[in-house]
Amino acid sequence: MTAQLPLGIGVRDDAAFANYFPGANSEAVSAVQRSACAEGEQMIYLWGAPGVGKTHLLQAACHQANARGEAVAYVPLAQADEFSPGLLEGFEQLALVCIDDIQAIAGQAAWETALFHLYNRMRDSGTHCMIAGSAAPSGVGVALPDLASRLAWGLVLHLDTLDDESVLAALQLRARQRGLELPDEVAQFLLRRERRDMPALFALLERLDHASLAAQRKLTIPFIKGIIEA
User: Fold this and answer.
1) How far from the centroid of its chain's Cα atoms is residue 161's Cα?
2) Which of 106, 141, 149, 185 is the most exposed place for a label (fewest CB within 10 A)?
3) What is the per-residue pLDDT for 2?
4) Start-to-end Cα distance in the chain
5) Residue 44 near residue 129, CB atoms below 8 Å
6) Distances in Å between the alpha carbon of 139 and those of 25, 142, 150, 164, 189?
7) pLDDT per residue over 125-167, tens digit each?
């Protein structure tokens, strides 16, 4: 079973490796997949700009491990004000722990100390751990020197931002996963009109999917313009 966090915090049902377009990040994705299967590196630190898919990969890893019957936990530190560092007690007994947005608690002594001790316990117990941050371990703003050093112990992976061609391919992949046909000219229209931000583009695609189902219409440029400009 998945370890449950308070206040309904969990992972998105649609977070999967199959609908993540890696672009230049294929090796990093493979390393995350191996770790989710209790293979490869025990400790992985992922970093990169917003929108590169750090959260998606952590949640996909949780789904993959959970599907194998393993106990996992996903900890979104961007919501750390909704729970306390004591939540981390006992997580070293799980197979996989994924900690997202570590920069959100940088400089908070209680959280940094709790993470430091959890990291040591997981290292000893064999728990696989993935941590995601907005910058490399040395630049993420952690004040506790021992925690900063722990973050760099394992495999440190940088996720590159997708180029325009890869953004187009990623958008079309997500459309196919939703059963939608997104021709090149339609996808390019979306990229010209909207921010090159993958979460925002995927959210728009979900909105267009619902609209096309309701109207029983294909995703054409005139139809999309009507939805966007409504």
Assistant:
1) 14
2) 185
3) 43
4) 43
5) yes
6) 21, 8, 14, 28, 37
7) 999 999 999 999 999 999 999 999 999 999 999 999 888 888 8
Return the structure tokens found at 10: 């969990």
Q: For the chain, list residues with pLDDT below 70.
A: 1-10, 230
CA distance 120 to 103: 19
Amino acid type, 11: V
Residues with Cβ within 8 Å of residue 50, at least 6 apart in sequence = 134, 197
**Fold that domain 164-229 belongs to in CATH:** Helicase, Ruva Protein; domain 3 (1.10.8)
User: b/e map of 54-72 (b: 16 or more CB within 10 Å)?
Assistant: bbbbbbbbbbbbbeeebbb
